[in-house]
Every structure is written in C-alpha cells, then in structure tokens.
C-alpha cells in the first residue's frame, strides 16, 4: 500500500464536504500528521487491495483541510456539518404531551361554544377531534348536532321528590343518594351503573360513545360520571381509550408500534422520507408502521412479509417436491429408494413414482419392475410436459426465494447481534476505555458511531435482498448492476465490522496504548467511507438503478452474463461510487495501472475485484 502526501487543487470530490471552520493551523497539522501516520501503518485489510491510496492535503482560504483517498474526498469536520441530512420532519409526543393538547382543544371548544368541558369532550370525540369540522356543524345546526351526540339542554323526566327510589334496571328500592342519572334524568342504582359502564369499557373504545341505559333514551354519559361510578381499573381504561382516540383520529399522528411504548409520532405530511425514530429508540416507517425499510417501498415490504408467512410457500414446496397419489390424491414425498411407492393407510395404493401408473401393470413389457420406460415414452409424446413444467417452475421459484430469504434473515440476525454488541460496548467497555486511555466518553464516540453504522448497514443490506427478489429477472443489466453494488456493499461492511470486532479487541485489553490514535483514525475513515457508499446505494435503488440507462452498459461494452467486473468499471468511470474507496483507479493513474485494471476479475462468490492474483480471490 502506498501513501503519499501532495498539495494541489481539489479533484474528483465525491463525498459531500465536511468543513472544519475555526480550527487552528497547528491543530490542523497535528490532525494531518496523525492521519498520515495511521495510513502508513495500516494493514492490507484496511482498504481494498490492488489499489493505490493517494492522500492529498488541500488548504482553502479559511484553513480547512481536506483529506482525499484516491478519487474520494473526506474533509475533516469539527464545526458545521454540510452533509445531506434530512431535516426533522416529525415530532415525538409523550402521553403527557398528548393529554395536554387534548385538554387545550377541549378548553378551546368549551370557551368558543359556551358549553361545559364534558359536552366539549363528547362533541370532539364524535367529530374525530377536528375543531373546524365541529364548528362548521355546530354553527350550521346546533340542535341537530346536540341530538346526534346526545347532549340534552334539559332533562327528559323530573327527579321524583321521594326518599326511597326504585332502580329502573334491578327494580330494587334505594335511598336517593344511591341513585344516579345522566342529563336525561333516568335514575339507576350505583351497582347497575357500575356493571353497565364496566361492561362497556371492557368491550373496547365504543365506551367513548356511551348512552343512557334506558332503551328509549340517547343521552350521553361522560367521563365525569364514569369516574364517580366505576373502579380505578375501569377509569384508567376509559382514560386510555380517550387518549388514544385523539391520536388515532388524526391523519398526522400515529402510535409507535414498539411493544410497551406509549409515544406517538406527529408527521409533517408530504415532507419526504417516512423514516422516523421514537424516543424508545425504535425506528419505523410512519407510512406503514413496519420497521424502517429503505431502499424498498412499503408495497414491496408488505408483499415480502406476506410471502414469508403465507401458506402459498408451503403449497409451492409441496408442488415442487411431491407427487399426488393417483388414487387418494394425497401428496407424497420421495426421499430415497426405488420407484415402487405405497401410499399410507387406509389407501395403501401401490404405484410407480415415474409414471404414476398401477404397480401391478409393470413388468418386462415396461422395461422391468424397477426400470419403467412408460415415463420416457409418455414424456416424448408430450403427455407429462405440462405437469413437469409446473413442477420445475415451482422448484426454481422455491430455490430463488430460499436464496434471498436466507440472506435476508442472516443480515437480520447479524443486525440483532450488533445491537447487543453495541449495548455491551456502551455499558461496559466504553467506561473501561475512558479510564485506560484518559479519554472522555465523548472522545470515544467514534466507536459507538461505527457500531451504529454497522447496525444501519445491516438493515439496509437486509432489505436489498427483498429488492433483488422483486427485481424483474428479464432486466439482466439491472440485475448485474444490482448484484455488483450489493457485493461491494457487503465487502465494505465486512471490513468495517472486522475492524470494530477484531482490531478494537487489543485496545479493550489495554495492549495498544501507542496505537490508539491510529486505530481511531482508521475506524473513523472506514465508518465514513461505508456510510457514504450505503447512502449512495440507497439512493440508487430508490431511483430504480437509473444509472444503468445512463451508463448504457450493455450496448457499449458488449456485457456478457457473468461480466460483473465490466459493470464495476463502468460504474466507477461514471462517477457513481461517491464516498467509496476506489479499487480500480486513483488520481494520476498510469498506463500500467490502466492495463492492470483491464486484467482485473470479479470473484463469483463475493464479487470482489482481484488484481494481484489471477486465480485466487484476495477476500475469500
């Protein structure tokens, strides 16, 4: 690996600039020397083999230093961050925030319409907490609105002037203070009210529209009366339903789908990405409430999840790996043995596996009991073509699905494992490193940043397999380009993951005191390079791999079915790989380097571009 230092104008800037305004010149020089030292002492596995890493130091008028690696540029950043980060387009709300907003809306309606808070709450529930819709309906026809929601201006019946009253449900006599009525005046005892309300609350959110128990009455029963008559458990349930109705009635807010989380997310509609992150750390797509799934769309996620759980996959397996009994039609799988099959009881039909004919009809005339030639004759005559076609198609479909699903699941397992490793790093190792190397936890943030990047990349890589499964097979050029990008992403992520898992181990054990700064810069560079590549990968897939049409790979290069190397060279010549470490070209590449580039080959297993060895993959 070569490392040279030169000054010059900025060329081939491919990573979004990250500035370091306000740094002193001495500090910049120290940063440069530290990074240069780390590059000189880095292992061969730090960056792709077969490429020259050329570091350029460029100074601008305001003393910012830019580090470039080949055709990639990394600008040191301690100040303003000019990277393309989406502005926060959502707000995370706690239950206290929601309750406060709810009370404010009730208070507004109560003051404007000159009604009680109980009546305002009933009205807002009926109009899905839309103040504007409520005002429009109220001022258009107040009487109609009152009748619809059960708000009576005066009682239907008058309270009897007696000490002993009869309950209208159980018909027992009670003292006056044991009887209760809604605005209508229908009296019922406390016990009957309790049973009626509790049953309604246990039945679900319909209790928010509770009416008087009298069959002929539609008077509303509000929260104030409920709080007096039922148990604490029922009161809490009712309050929860009321709170949830406020969020669920809004088009702009949704509850966090994480188990046990009580936060809601208010989203600015039409503001770009649906990816949101709750305060409970759960990240999900606001549109479909599934986990964050860029670069694939919500429709593909829905189809993929359904496919992973649907009964159709079982039917595909049965069709691909079994044949029906000619008599009872039960599917039978042949795992080994001869062609003589016997169905399970009570059928017990004996037949030939090849032609599905009765075994008693087999003999010398059919080529022998164990050498049936009827199948070959029938197939030549076209009798079994359609059945065999369906079976072969089912086998291919199942094999293809299994390929993508296994890799999708493997990346999910790796992501979960990385999350556990990050938690262990934060809870145990960071504190130890802080003490051993006299570094604050903020200065050790580069380690947690690397782990967070690994977790995010595993998530992206996982969903690229769902993307690949639904990519049309007839678009061969796009498929080859996609597989190339996916292979490059896997290779880059493995380098970062290996650096975090293996190279940090001596640091944690306290054996590399002198190499702390080198390892920090190495890990920071790998994190940045990996992040930029995956950001570009997500954009490319979301744009439908439009670069394939731009590069015109197929027509200009005569691309063959296995020429992934050509796809890679075309991609790099087009400048797609912004923020990635180049494997086939550097600034000022010589004629010898160009010849070497043409002799590179791509490993069929990992898609890595090999240049040093003509036969052995340097990664595998």
Automatic annotation (TrEMBL):
CC cofactor: Zn(2+)
One Pfam family here: UBA_ARI1
First-tier enzyme category under EC: transferase
A GO term, aspect molecular function: zinc ion binding
SMART domains registered for this protein in UniProt: IBR
Record GO biological process: protein ubiquitination
Organism of provenance: Thalictrum thalictroides
PROSITE patterns in the record: TRIAD (PS51873), ZF_RANBP2_1 (PS01358), ZF_RING_2 (PS50089)
Domain RING-type: 163-376, 167-211
Protein function: Might act as an E3 ubiquitin-protein ligase, or as part of E3 complex, which accepts ubiquitin from specific E2 ubiquitin-conjugating enzymes and then transfers it to substrates.
EC number annotated for this UniProt entry: 2.3.2.31
Pathway: Protein modification; protein ubiquitination
UniProt entry keywords in alphabetical sequence: Metal-binding, Repeat, Transferase, Ubl conjugation pathway, Zinc, Zinc-finger
Family (UniProt): Belongs to the RBR family. Ariadne subfamily.
The reaction(s) this protein catalyses: [E2 ubiquitin-conjugating enzyme]-S-ubiquitinyl-L-cysteine + [acceptor protein]-L-lysine = [E2 ubiquitin-conjugating enzyme]-L-cysteine + [acceptor protein]-N(6)-ubiquitinyl-L-lysine
Domain of life, per lineage: Eukaryota
Listed InterPro entries: Ariadne, ARIH1-like_UBL, E3_UB_ligase_RBR, IBR_dom, TRIAD_supradom, Znf_RanBP2, Znf_RING, Znf_RING/FYVE/PHD
Protein name per its UniProtKB record: RBR-type E3 ubiquitin transferase
Region (Disordered): 1-30, 570-594
Organism lineage string: Eukaryota, Viridiplantae, Streptophyta, Embryophyta, Tracheophyta
Gene3D superfamilies (UniProt xref): 1.20.120.1750, Zinc/RING finger domain, C3HC4 (zinc finger) (3.30.40.10)
